[in-house]
Amino acid sequence: MCLGKVPMLSTTALHHLHIFIFVLxxxxxxxxxxxxxxxxARIRQWKxxxxxxxxxxxxxxxxxxxxxxxxxxHDFIKSRYLGFGKNSYILGWVHSFFxxxxxxxxxxxxxxxxxxxxxxxxxxxxxxxxxxxxxxxxEADFKKVVGIxxxxxxxxxxxxxxxxxxxxxYFWIAFIxxxxxxxxxTKLEHVIIQLAHEVAEKHVAVQGDLVVRPSDDHFWFNxxxxxxxxxxxxxxxxxxxxxxxxxxxxxxxxDSCIMGQVGYIIPRxxxxxxxxxxxxxxxxxxYAIVTQMGSSFKREIFExxxxxxxxxxxxxxxxxxxxxxxxxxSSHNQVGPKEESPLIQMAKAGSRETAVxxxxxxxxxxxxxx
Length: 370
What we know:
Elements: H1 11-44, H2 47-58, E1 68-70, H3 75-80, H4 89-99, H5 107-121, H6 130-145, H7 150-162, H8 169-172, H9 175-202, E2 205-207, H10 225-252, H11 262-290, H12 304-334, H13 342-369
Antiparallel strand pairs: 1-2
Subcellular location: Membrane
GO cellular component, one term: membrane
Pfam families: Mlo (PF03094)
């Protein structure tokens, strides 16, 4: 140790910090798993809707020629476009805010969004299992959500630096995931409303079923991936808040000065439990279906064995292209000044034959003229 200098953290404090990081990682993983399990259980209830739609499509009576129906007679338009204040921009956002707390996704929503996805991305496969596709996408996104990125660790460092006595930073920070969660849920609900408005404003009557047009324009900065990033931040910050509470409780006791007053503790726990519940049963199912309304689809649209086949085919094609490029370069380098390529030899041979024919024709003309 250098003279005149002291360590920023003592050995005891550094040991406690290591324990906190371990607790935070464990709590984050557990909370993410619970969120995915509860959200997936809610989404699996939609499997009944998927099976019902498949049976309806196989019914010969339903397979008859499509009929013209008035747009405003569809249940999707009635629930998302018609009614008091739903046609107003401001009241539409207010309706989206409260909609996330009850019946966030209805049967008409699922049916319409499913058909819009199929007609846009896989028109040639009308029997596409949209529910199974959503579950595969959710499993793939879970691998990203459960991880802890560098910017999340930066947030932890900033919080520990701002945790000054009297500021109650541990209380105010609980509102960050709460506000972000409400904003994400409201935006996802508003995307569905925008899809309904597009159809209702452009068409008076439609032939057959109502079809919406997925587009990235409905999302923040035209990027549906931002929603997944915000959900990642929400789950981590909520895990951090509750992990910090349990760590202080076990490490220093409930009556320690670091824990703070009871009036600040109870709201933190209530907000954390509310965020966990709402994210599991409302926001995550909304995310699973609404983010499929982007302009593109994900590779999980293919079955797992097809994905492996496509990846293997791409690697082989890339390998063959590299070998072909190497062979062309080597053959080009082997052509020296004394050794010419077959194309050049054929061109020179042709020019020599042409010259000989011209000489012969000149001799014939000369002999005739004399």
